[in-house]
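U., I forgot to send this yesterday:
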Amino acid sequence: MTTAKTDPQRPRAESALSIALALFMLLQSVSGRLFPGAYRDVEWIKATWFGNDFVTMLVVVPLLVVSLLLLRRGSHRARLVWLGTLGYGAYNYAYYLLGAALNAFFPLYVFAFLLAVAALIIGLAGSDISSLASGFSSRTPVRAIGGYYVFVATGLSIVWFGMWAAYIFAGRPTPVETEAFKLVAALDTALIVPALALGGVLLWSKIGWGYVIAPAAGTLASLYLLVLSLNSGVAVMSGAVDGPGELPLWGTLLLLTSGATLLLLKAAGSAKTASFRLRAEKQ
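Result:
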């Protein structure tokens, strides 16, 4: 496995890709709020971009930049958060890229998605698993947190596949039009569910990769649950749906998932990896 110690160019690649991604994410989200008329979707889909844009602009971009700065100082915790924000970028812009009607922002979706995926691949491949795993305290309730992640992943799978089965075999309508339902169900079951399930299982088993995948997946899930909670609250306040709508569901999951993830990140500590210690000694 290649690590920062054997690949001195990796930190530069991580920084360059992350900075470019942050700029594209900021440009897209700010443009989406300044020019909402550029979205050509039906009204209920346009409304979903509201939460995505605001969370991306006000939470994810700053979190990406700060975690990158702390990562360059060797923080274990920052690397895990950074990987989670990259996961958000890949998931979010896959959603825009495949779900938004063709509009003026299309090139931004393409570049943001590619940058997020490239940075995520390099970041995961270059992670020093042994150093990251060793930073966790033996008192960390990894099995409880891992079990919770698997529980959420299982619940999402049951909901999505249950609604699919009801539509196919019982003729029941999907909650939204079928193409929109298929997109969201596909992205959740192909990206978020496997990330949470794999991270949870590995963490439960105390396998090294679990200490990386689980907190990164938890960060991704928490950020997107924030989007869903915000959009649900806006829908209720605007009168688009009767209160409380889906806010109790997404809000509860947001609190539980972010709480579990913060507990895991706190346990990761901020010790420096061997490569950064070596660099400091040389200086």
